[in-house]
Amino acid sequence: MEHAQLIHLLVIGVVSTLILYGILSSLRGKELFIRRLAGIDAIEEAVGRATEMGRPILFSVGLGGVEIETFQALAIASHVARLAARYRNRVILPVIDTVIYTIAEEALREAYAEAGHPEAFRPEDVRFLSGSQFAYASGVIGIMNREKVAANFFFGPFAAESLILAETGQAIGAIQIAGTASILQVPFFIAACDYTIIGEEFYAASAYLSRDPIHLGSVVGQDYSKIALAAFTFTGMIIATLATRWAELNGLLKFLTGGQ
Amino acid sequence: MFQPVENTILNIALMILSVLVSVVFLAVLHNVPPNLRMRVIMVITFIAGLYYPLEFFIPDGTALTPFRNRYLTPFLNPIGDAVAVMAAFTVGIGITNLCIVHARNISQRREGWGNSVVFFISMIIMFVVTLANRYAPNLFCTATAENMMTPVQAAFSVMFEGVYTALNATVFSLLAFFITSAAYRAFRIRTAEAALLMVGALIVMLGQVPVGMWLTHWIPDESIFRFLRFEVLSEWLLANINMPAQRGILFGVWVGALAMALRIWLSLERGGYFGRQF
Amino acid sequence: MCVDARIVEIITYFVAAACTLGIYTILYRENRLFRLFEHIFIGVAAGYGLAITITEVLDPRWFKPMITENATIISTCESVRGWEGVSIDRHVKRVGRASIRWETDKEKMIRYTTPPPNWTDARYVKLWVHSEKQTDGSVTMRVGTKHKAGKPTAWFEKSFKIDFVGWRQLTLYLKDFWSKGELDRREVKGVYVVEFVADDALAESGVVLHIDELRYCIGRKWYWIFALVGGMLYYTIFMPRFAWMSRFIIGIFMGLQAGYTFKAFVLTFYPQIAKSLRPIYVPGNISMTLNNIIFIITLLCVLVYFFFTIEHKRPTIRTTARLGRLLLMITFGLIFGNTIMARFSLFIKRLDFLITQFPWLK
Amino acid sequence: MRVTRISDFVLTMLSRFQQVDRRIIYVLVWILIGFPIVAPHVGIRLPVLPMYPTRAARSFFEAVESVPNDKVILVACDFDPGTLGENGPQCRSVIEHIMRAGKKFIIMGLDQVGPTIAQAYAEELAKKYGYKYGVDYCNFGWITGGQMFLERMCRDLHAAVKQDKAGTPLSEIPMMKNVRSAKDIGLVVEFTGSGLLPLYIATFNAQFGVKLAQGCTGIIGPEQFPYLDTGQLSGLLVGLKGAAEYEEMLNVVGGGKRAMLPQSAGHLLIIVLVALGNIGMWAARKVERR
Predict the structure, then answer these.
(1) Which residues constitute the domain of residue B267?
(2) What is the pLDDT along chain B (278 residues), one digit of tens a residue?
(3) Which CATH architecture has domain A38-210?
């Protein structure tokens, strides 16, 4: 399919308008509610524990390249860095992508500055390890063992190396929080980490933490979109059911499925 | 305006000219007050964000189709190449960062500096051997008989198959051990959720190996209890619980991705890297 | 000074075996041997990554298009295959080991029948021509191209004078070719023959010509230098005064990535919605109906679990979300169980390699 | 700690299973998976575990058997070295079955490597079953052009695929004389690790009614079951288990069945460890309550 069908334009149009409506209403000062997510206390507790033990914190954005999920993960990294900076604790951030290396270095430098301890930030803690998945994984487990990190955070896109990192972290007794939309890796984070945030829960968590009106509005807009998509899917199912009886509806069904 | 040229000197001249034009453009932007400069970057991000949606969402057979076919679709591959090439240039940043970290280890004789020396040696050997294998395979001796290899090919085979592929496959295979210890520790009936995690895994495991199948193969295949056979139950669960659940997660993940894309595109993103003034 | 492949194989095996066992020591605990192989791995991966970036991305997709003429060989003239009316000449040659010999007095026209068909981006043709003596005759190069079925063939041709002695490289710009028959210059896809016709003056003079290295070229794409400028902007991140320039290039990257997300939403995610539009009740197929009902319940429960703006106070919401979480847990158990076989086979393959590739056992 | 009753002693012993050291687990993995692989090389004959073919595998088998003799089978090898571990044994055992059933077949693939590997399997098996290239089977090699090209192949095979992998024109291949279009293809068997099935469904199955059967990897197995329910797929082999099931029906020992012993040992180890872990936890809780 080189070009979109009409149904795709409609669906994206509706979802985008709902999200922008959420953001605009939040900017106009409408009070918005987001339920507190358990993942948030876990993040603060993990940073606190690492500071008590005086050991550094390791934050990995997995195989994150220049993609949306990596920016969401870096937003969480900035938040963790702000927490750690208060107690002048180190955050080690090994990366696999050179473009993300430049962005991550700036994000962390700025987080330490915002927390009032710009001098506590050590540039060499943001490290490019390797461009290859398993060289990166072996590098990270090397750092974990040598630096004896007390807390591990795994946020962003992950693949098979997720369990290599999480199981090694568990073996050295670090407290571990993970959040990823890579569904096939969530089971391994659940098995090896203390707390796992599933799919876009971690995105809502960062909106909750920052209390930033645009982020809050966006999460609300996203909820409206999910309700709309669920309703759309449900009506589609009803049409599919009726189509088994009245064949004329098959044309409508073909339109809804985008000619599949 | 952007047409290839035939003669070499003209080609080099145009290249130098383009560099000068870019430098002038950047210098002009440099002297512009910061918030105006930020506006320019926001506009450029917006325009860059327009390209793929316009190219993809303008349907065939409308007034805009000729515009799309003339100005947008032909640039799909060149833009892909341009992005890949510019990202390739950043590899230098990664390598310089690596070298700084390891060079500091050596210069300050930090604990484990020997490994940093090993890092430099293996990097340089692999770099030289891979380039030689690609551009000058028969460096020292040319004609090779059937089962003979040139020194460069031999070195590349040892370094690539012997070291790189072996290390890659071995680190990957560590998962066989880690999955066993993770399963042992995680599958405990502490809470309802942990119990369900365990039950799901056990059913699929038993459904995959002959021992598991042997346990329930006595249930006749035609009877209504057929779905109690491990391999059938595991197939059914994978198709009717696993698939819709994954789809449910994907609904949220993709709506979230769309929301972030909208915010980056309209420069609404705040916090972290984006928030800083210029 | 070549090396016997057998010895190389043995060395490769022992190096691979050492690396394998070295990495496996991490299973006991982190130790010096593992640290050594970890640094070897990161070094080799860095060296390989840099080399591959050059050989697979920078050289073919940036440097060559920018510096070289992006030529496509029509005929290397090293053999007579595909040519008609010519003979091979191993003595008089310009490029490679041979060239095409054309006695104009015997053959007034020669043809090359297997040219590359797609000349869409070609801008000019280049070829080496050798002549024994100066003549006032000229040769016409004719290119025959077939379009979509049913359309007549279109020809475009250009002639050049043979008023030189020895080898000379000719450049014939395609836009100067005079075309017979309706030809769409932007879509030249059906080229099936290239002919060289000697005019009468040349035929009388009976000169013997040689042709070598016949190519069509696109030309040097000087504008690819902008990619270098764009790439260098990244490095400004280390200079605070110019750091805004890195924002410039990263802004473009993120804009493109954000735009692409809309396309990916349709290509990757929308089929998932399309496949979920299943009939709730399938007449005459009880098991399918049951499956579809369970499918819908699971999908809706998991969706409710991911609502963040509704407090889980109302019983209906709370139980659906709770059921959603339990279904998610079963799903993650299923995924875990489904992956075990793949992970074990990785280790089985490593052991298989260690044992079966053992040089003396093979 | 004076032990009052035997059960206390047993419980404290059992509670130690709650925290088995990870290194012991790793050694067990080495032994249980390593031994079945080393054993054949040191002359120890190991039992071959019986497999119980699922309905999807059996219908794959019947689909191949039921192809009329005047029709050919299209073997589509859309896999690369990455998924060779699972798709390889599947492809090899199906080709062996086609040869044993005496049917003619054509190898092709939307991936460069797949057809070459399948060709090696076919040549090796051809010696055993007396199959001759060009008469009983042939190989089109790598096919590009995706769905549009498959559709052209369905309509007119000779016009779409001008020559086979070795470059000989189709008109000169004896078996291709009476194979002109999809009407002469009895079954398409596809082996892949990626979701390419919809391409074949939209062309061979939907428009020309040719039966389809697939051998896929374990990871994408669940996504293919719906096609079984709707009848678009008349057979499915999933991962190494699928290969082992097919080899069981052929009663041949191939890559699938050979891997079943170490895989079973590994899976059993996990199940036993999980059981011990839970027993240990239960025992420890019991001891605390005392």
Answers:
(1) 190-278
(2) 788 888 889 999 999 999 999 999 999 988 988 888 888 888 999 999 999 999 898 888 888 888 888 888 888 888 888 888 998 998 988 899 899 999 999 999 888 899 999 999 999 999 999 999 999 887 777 656 777 888 888 999 999 999 999 999 999 999 999 999 999 999 999 899 999 999 999 999 999 888 888 888 888 877 888 888 888 899 889 988 998 999 899 898 899 999 989 988 888 876 545 654 44
(3) 3-Layer(aba) Sandwich (3.40)
Q: Which helix (H) or strand (E) holds A83?
A: helix A68-86
- Helix ranges (H only) for chain B are 8-31, 34-57, 65-67, 76-89, 91-107, 113-135, 151-157, 166-186, 192-206, 210-216, 230-237, 243-265
Q: Say if residues B182 and A188 touch (Cβ distance below 8 Å).
A: yes
Count structural domains, chain B: 2
Distance between CA atoms of residues A92 and C357, nearest Å: 40
Contact of D242 with chain C, judged by CB distance below 8 Å, is answered with no
Write down the residue that tokens 């074949």 correspond to. Answer: D200
Domain boundaries, chain C: 1-68, 72-219, 286-356
Shortest Cα–Cα distance, D278 to chain B (Å): 6
Among B164, B186, B208, the domain-final residue is B186
Question: How far is CA D28 from each of CA B178, B210, D15, D25, rounded to the nearest angstrom?
Answer: 12, 20, 20, 5
Interface test with C, best of B85, B222, B249, B276 (most C CBs within 10 A): B85
B185, B187, B231 ranked by CB distance to D54: nearest: B231
Domains of chain D plus CATH, in order, are 2-45+261-289 (no CATH), 55-257 (3.40.50)
CATH number, span C72-219: 2.60.120.430
pTM of the model: 0.88
Same domain, B199 and B244: yes
Interface test with A, best of B85, B263, B267 (most A CBs within 10 A): B263
